[in-house]
Task: structure prediction
Amino acid sequence: MDETAELLQLLEAEVESQKKHKDSLWYAGDLRFLLHDAQKVIYDDFYRLNNRETILLCARRFGKSFLGLILCLEYAIKNPRTIVRFIPPEIKQAYGICLPNMGKLEQLWPTGLIQYVSSEKAWKIGRGSWLYLGGFDSQKDASRGSEASFIVCDEAGFTNPEQYNYILKSVLKPQMLTTRGKMIILSTPSRIPSHPFMTETVSDAKLEGRLHKYTIYDNPMLDEDQIAEAKRDCGGEDTEDFKREYLCEVIRSASMSVLPRYSAERCIENFQLDPHWYRAIIGDFGGVTDLTVIHAIAYRYRSNCDGDVMFIDERVYDANTTTKEIVEGITELHKLYIKTSKAPEQDDTAYLDCPGQLQVDLNNQHNLNVRIPIKDEFHSGVNLINLYINQNRIKLHPRCKFTAMSFEAARFNDRRTDYIRNPVLGHCDAIASAIYGIRMICKDRDGSPIPKVNPEKAAWWKQPVQESSRQQVADAIYGRRK
Result:
């Protein structure tokens, strides 16, 4: 009996020791011990890279919302008197996600460290920090003027696409301007390929190395049977649902995508501009309804095969932008890329799809040499650019971010008779400009200079004949003279 009592005392002491150790971790704001192994990888990368904005694409049931909540608590504990926000698409989701998780965590944190304040509908944390819940549907103007030091946006790909940019850029990010805070955006890929979360946030993060992707196979909490069940529920591992929800792939319908074979891996190239490539300024004027997109392009001539259309730079303007501002952009591109060309007889014409009167004004009042590009039937233009994409003959410099987004996300309407208008991409004006560029760029001449031939390497019949050589030939034929 005494041995049993002694064993119980040892166990109680060990439990108490572990509790004190975990309490010390809570007070220090070190909550890594609450995460599973895959979440710890994300956690470690977040602190190691120390980016102000981090984008995570995570498979379903990965625990990304719990991870985001843990990071919110950590930041609030470590940084006294700061404001932290957790914001999914809707305010109801925020409470539906946080209340159960906070209820479980309440059993673990030290008494008094975190308290729910019902009057504020928020949690007071540590030394004067606060965790507030919100939603993209509730943030529209309620949070304007307030501040935050850490923001987690959960399931951003499932927000209202028309409100997403406004809430993110005009409401949330300005809150961190003076605090120099951090933001994490978590989601599975959106069902809408043209959602601005996919076309802007994910695309920018991918180019800048801030995008991290974790699939169902990275989740240590699922065994083989559970993964097999997820495949069956989606109808197989080759289905769009499984690829999007569990492999975090951006699914573009082959029938509705304008450029179904486009991929950033094939088309984006950080090329060096050859001074002897033929170049052109191409553009599509949007007027009062659509975007205006201007491109500087070049043609990479190849002697043994068809060449490549190289998109060097771009300028994008909202509807109702003044002609003066657009002309300034065209002039800038002209100075950067047309005047610096060393190709013989480089054309300085800007091929712009614009109304006739505007063409007259651009030529006479703004001193631009403007011509209207060739415009064929809609589907012939789409087929042309798809042919170049399929042949891997279109290359986008990383500067052409809007063009890359348009190529990635452009879709047809239900009857495939026109592009779908999008609040981010407009009326696919970048694709229209690209089609004009393919048609109008000079493709029948090589602008590189004729190489100078070293006389020593010239063909034998072009080499100068020396007298000594003549004597050597005669000696070889007739024998050396005596």
The longest helix spans residues 2-28. The chain is about 40% helix and 15% strand. The radius of gyration is 32 Å.
